[in-house]
């Protein structure tokens, strides 16, 4: 029971609602937000493992790219779950607010919903960027960088002397 008293000493008691007595859309929104947290955690771990600067996984950059792409998929799933949960909850709040025959407590859209929409949008954008950045390219299409500067301000050639470096600059052009 949840009881309250007023200034005259009268007690008003009502049954305390259980978490399982909540409406179905609130329970579904909670489940979607828990799934969103799990997807975000998996996405964060996969992205950290898949980064090229990470020592986990060795020097296999193809595998690291695929792991980072899986992290992008997890971030997309996180954003979609969050967007569905927040939008569904906001739609029900709006529907109850404008219903003249609804006798329960009428809530309004608050800051939490705006934060949810912003975080869902950022998660979807981040997952999309991560997927697009990790798209597979064949190693034949990669052009090796022909020169690598050393610490003594000399330029060392990585290519064999018989190969010519295609360039738009003359011999006296400096960068």
From TrEMBL:
Subcellular location: Cell junction, Tight junction; Cell membrane
Membrane topology (UniProt): Multi-pass membrane protein
Keyword Glycoprotein: no
Matches recorded under Gene3D superfamilies: 1.20.140.150
Keywords tagged on the record: Cell junction, Cell membrane, Membrane, Tight junction, Transmembrane, Transmembrane helix
GO cellular component labels: bicellular tight junction; plasma membrane
InterPro entries the UniProt entry points to: Claudin, PMP22/EMP/MP20/Claudin
Principal cellular location given in the protein's record: other
GO MF annotation list: structural molecule activity
A Pfam family reported for this protein in Swiss-Prot or TrEMBL: PMP22_Claudin
Transmembrane domains' residue ranges: 25-46, 67-91, 111-133
UniProt record similarity statement: Belongs to the claudin family.
Identification of the protein by name: Uncharacterized protein
Organism name: Knipowitschia caucasica (Caucasian dwarf goby)
């Amino acid at each position: 029971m949840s009881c309250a008293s007023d200034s005259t000493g009268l007690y008003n008691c009502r049954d305390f609602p259980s978490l399982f007595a909540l409406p179905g859309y609130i329970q579904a929104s909670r489940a979607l937000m828990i799934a969103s947290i799990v997807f975000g955690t998996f996405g964060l771990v996969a992205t950290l493992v898949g980064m090229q600067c990470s020592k986990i996984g060795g020097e296999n950059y193809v595998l690291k790219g695929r792991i980072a792409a899986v992290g992008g998929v997890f971030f997309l799933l996180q954003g979609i779950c969050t967007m569905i949960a927040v939008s569904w909850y906001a739609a029900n709040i709006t529907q109850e607010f404008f219903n003249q025959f609804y006798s329960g407590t009428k809530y309004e859209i608050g800051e939490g919903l705006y934060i949810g929409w912003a975080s869902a949008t950022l998660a979807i954008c981040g997952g999309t960027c991560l997927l697009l950045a990790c798209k597979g390219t064949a190693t034949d299409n990669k052009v090796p960088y022909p020169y690598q500067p050393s610490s003594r301000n000399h330029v060392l050639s990585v290519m064999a002397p018989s190969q010519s470096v295609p360039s738009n600059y003359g011999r006296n052009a400096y960068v």
